[in-house]
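A.,

Following up on our hallway conversation. Structure tokens first:
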């Protein structure tokens, strides 16, 4: 506690120097009333680095206690959803850090404080927050706003303009679909050595039929499993189309597919050499803000590096919804717990980390996330970041509700998927036949996993899967006896 006090005192002194200086004169503003906050976050150090220190400079009167949510991953616990709920119930934090998987659940269960009235009361400006993000959070909150997210992660289509110009291929445009991307990739030459040739499209890692099709399916909002009905829904025309597009793309030889799975270790130079887009040999890729960092770092690190003209456009998109994207994630949604005794201080915290002042400071450091408050993450290394804000985040999330699927299911489902797709790759099965088998056999596995999970949930809290627990009280002492089955 003494260490925390010294930390707060130092920050308070710093804030005085940064603003107007502290004086004991008659004009000194009355000291604000002391208050406290319990915040749930990944870890205490990370919290202060990301949010706490800046907030403390602005509000030194608020004492913060960080509840480390990493504790739910300790031990043999596998039901992380329930473990998270149990931790909230036990610690009663004022501020919860949620993600897209549990925000809607906590809101619908009445566990969160509605923010619309607070925004209206304080005339808090939300007009310059990333368009669509507020609407999305409201939709997931059943029509009301229960949380704010200060940052988000998005992607765009990165392209090498020099290669497009060299081979006379029309430059990419905003709103390209996966079909358009693959058709464009095929317009580049496919001859030459693997380590020196040009590719129309590629990522830094090995692309299989499965993960390529999954990327396409995610863009188009397809779901392999319906978590509400617990039914596998992969044997459909839409999924067949996604898989066929992936198969055709891989068969075209226009895609970069590293045979060894990609970089697995070595020097920085070897790392950069393993990224053909960075090295100017891939025409298009799906990029994120950190890819801009890579391009800057390689230019500064490799003596003989030849930079190229980088272009970025919004996409890929679902042709049925060309103005939206599903590749936007915001995994730090901050909400106030319903009935929090420190709601006022909690709201001050939410206003600060989602406000202009915080965005202005944090936008100076580049990472894989962009500020939700627009007008601050403008450019990096001479490249405009507007492309990441062009598409509206879609309310249809392919991964929504997937936390309901028992974790044990995936270990048995994936081998079925791998086996069937290997048969497709070897031309021993059609994609129609493979998807029919995957759905049928996968449903059997899912039904069993759901049944086992329900049976486990119905067991008494002190029972164990592989042990009966008895108690002996001989000689006045209590001894736990574990009988292994």
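Then the amino acids I'd put at each of the 485 positions:
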């Amino acid at each position: 506690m003494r260490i925390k006090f010294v930390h707060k005192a130092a920050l308070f002194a710093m804030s005085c120097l940064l603003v107007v200086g502290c004086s004991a004169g008659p004009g000194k503003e009355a000291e604000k009333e002391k208050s406290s906050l319990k915040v749930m976050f990944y870890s205490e150090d990370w919290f202060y680095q990301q949010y706490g220190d800046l907030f403390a400079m602005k509000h030194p009167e608020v004492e913060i206690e960080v509840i480390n949510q990493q504790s739910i991953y300790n031990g043999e616990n596998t039901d992380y959803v329930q473990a998270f709920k149990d931790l909230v119930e036990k610690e009663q934090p004022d501020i919860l850090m949620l993600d897209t998987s549990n925000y809607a659940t906590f809101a619908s269960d009445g566990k969160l404080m509605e923010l619309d009235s607070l925004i209206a009361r304080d005339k808090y400006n939300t007009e310059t927050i990333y368009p669509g993000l507020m609407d999305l959070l409201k939709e997931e909150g059943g029509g009301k706003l229960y949380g704010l997210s200060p940052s988000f992660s998005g992607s765009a289509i990165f392209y090498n303009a020099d290669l497009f110009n060299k081979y006379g291929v029309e430059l990419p445009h905003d709103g390209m679909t996966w079909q358009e991307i693959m058709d464009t990739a095929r317009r580049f030459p496919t001859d030459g050595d693997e380590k020196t040739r040009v590719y129309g499209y590629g990522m830094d890692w090995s692309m299989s039929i499965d993960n390529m099709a999954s990327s396409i399916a995610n863009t188009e909002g397809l779901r392999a499993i319906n978590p509400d009905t617990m039914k596998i829904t992969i044997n459909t025309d839409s999924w067949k189309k996604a898989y066929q597009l992936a198969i055709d793309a891989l068969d075209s030889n226009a895609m970069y597919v590293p045979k060894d799975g990609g970089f697995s270790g070595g020097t920085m130079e070897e790392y950069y050499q393993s990224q053909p887009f960075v090295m100017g040999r891939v025409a298009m890729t799906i990029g994120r803000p950190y890819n801009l960092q890579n391009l800057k770092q390689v230019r500064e690190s490799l003596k003989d590096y030849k930079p190229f003209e980088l272009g970025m456009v919004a996409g890929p998109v679902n042709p049925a919804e060309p103005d939206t994207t599903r590749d936007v994630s915001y995994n730090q949604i901050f909400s106030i717990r319903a009935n929090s005794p420190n709601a006022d201080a909690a709201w001050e915290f939410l206003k600060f980390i989602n406000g202009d002042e915080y965005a202005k400071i944090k936008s100076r450091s580049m990472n894989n996330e962009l500020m939700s408050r627009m007008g601050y993450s403008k450019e990096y290394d001479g490249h405009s970041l507007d492309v990441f804000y062009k598409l509206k985040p879609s309310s249809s999330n392919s991964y929504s509700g997937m936390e309901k699927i028992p974790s044990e299911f995936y270990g048995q489902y994936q081998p079925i998927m791998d086996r069937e797709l290997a048969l497709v790759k070897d031309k021993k099965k059609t994609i129609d036949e493979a998807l029919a088998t995957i759905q049928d056999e996968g449903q059997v596995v899912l039904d069993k996993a759901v049944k086992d999970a329900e049976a486990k949930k119905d067991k008494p809290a002190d029972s164990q899967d592989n042990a009966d627990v008895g108690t002996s009280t001989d000689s006045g002492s209590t001894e736990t006896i574990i009988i292994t089955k």
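The chain has three domains: 34-150+329-381, 156-325, 402-456. Curious whether your intuition agrees with the design.

B.
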